Amino acid sequence: MAHLSGKGSLKGADIADSELLTSPAGKGIVIEDGIIVKIDDSKVLEDEYGRENIHRSKLDNLKCKIYSLNGKAIIPGLVDAHTHLLWSGDRSREVSWRQQGHSYSDIASMGGGIVSTVEATRNSTQAELIELGYKRLRSAFRNGSTHLEVKSGYGLSTESELKLIAAANELSKMNHLPSIDQTWLGAHATPKGYSRSDYVEEILSEQLPAVLEQGLARSADVFCEPGWFTIEESEDILKQSKDGGLDLRMHIDEFTDGGGGDLAAELAVTSADHSHYTSTDARMKMEESGVNCGFLPGTPYSMGEQWPDFNEVTEQQFTWSVATDFNPNCQTLSLPFIASILVQRCAVSPLAALVACSRNPAQTTPHPSGARHGVIEEGAVANLNVVDGPWWQAWCQQPGDSPFHATMLEGDLIFH
Ligand code: NIG
Ligand code: FE
Hints:
Helices cover 36% and strands 18% of the residues. It is built from 16 helices and 14 strands. The strands form three sheets. It has an eight-stranded parallel beta sheet. Strands 3-12-13-14 form a four-stranded antiparallel beta sheet, with no helix packed on it. Strand 1 (27-32) and strand 2 (35-41) form a beta hairpin. 49% of the residues are buried. The structure holds N-(iminomethyl)-L-glutamic acid (NIG) and fe (iii) ion.
């Protein structure tokens, strides 16, 4: 059992310290009302709660189910802390443009990129977006994610950004799907027909107030990158969002070091993601300000770029996590696949990869119950994955398929 007990993020050598984080086989977990209430040796728990004692036990009057997992390993429910879940359309042809040597900004000016997804998304009804979202959340769940951070950002008008947030809110009420934490990303690109300064003005005077009034987004995010939103524009939007009570996240340094890391540190945002070209100096400032570095290796995987040096950030004691960044260019909602990039291509240990997909991202995106998640310990949400075999390391070594036999969601065990 990969156990992951304790509070807060793990960094440096602790992220892969199995003494601290894994338990041998033979443990049992008692769950009540979706929360882990006790972890002990199976034998001890059998004596206390086991079949033969069940009528005499303190669970006497409760409905009680006992699952024997026959030695299969357990890891925490995975936490995907950066997704663009809801959008319509198809940008698959852009892979050929990339192979012909066109850059991300070339593709945007050729009629592809974010703005083309915006057109398709605006033309979709809320019901169509919910249907797409449902299918995608099922895929995330099959791959072990029990909680997702979900960004808007493919509407780019007040009406369509609110539609995306409302659609995600409907999905968050459905049974047997991962829980959702919503982020408003109105500053994802400049929509057609606007200058960037006019759009920023509209964001500040109209879109953000409408999002605050709607009251469904918990955080704000900005694509702070040369060619998209400048440091000054990002600062204005993020500061006003904070004043409105939103938590802050950022997209920084995806293609070049644009100085977003310094701003992330100055504003002490919760997570600064991509962060692939951020300087060591800016990363140090981020660490001092408590900013999580949210790497998104699926994006360089699909865009043909380099992965960051994960071992360097570990040596430097920086706090980091990974996420799928599900979007039209990077169409995976499988954290086991993202982790296989880390483990099988970047020399990250399976345990460090697991911490980066569970405990650490969970610090940036709270579970709606208010209980801790991304860990297996007393008091945490009973979100668990049952690996289809005895070794927990299998969780990140089946990149093309789900490695899980079953997933427990707030105490309900669902077989895949
Ligand atoms: O995080 N970089 C900004 N946003 C998305 C991709 C957007 C798109 O190309 O549609 C990301 O990778
Ligand atoms: Fe993103």
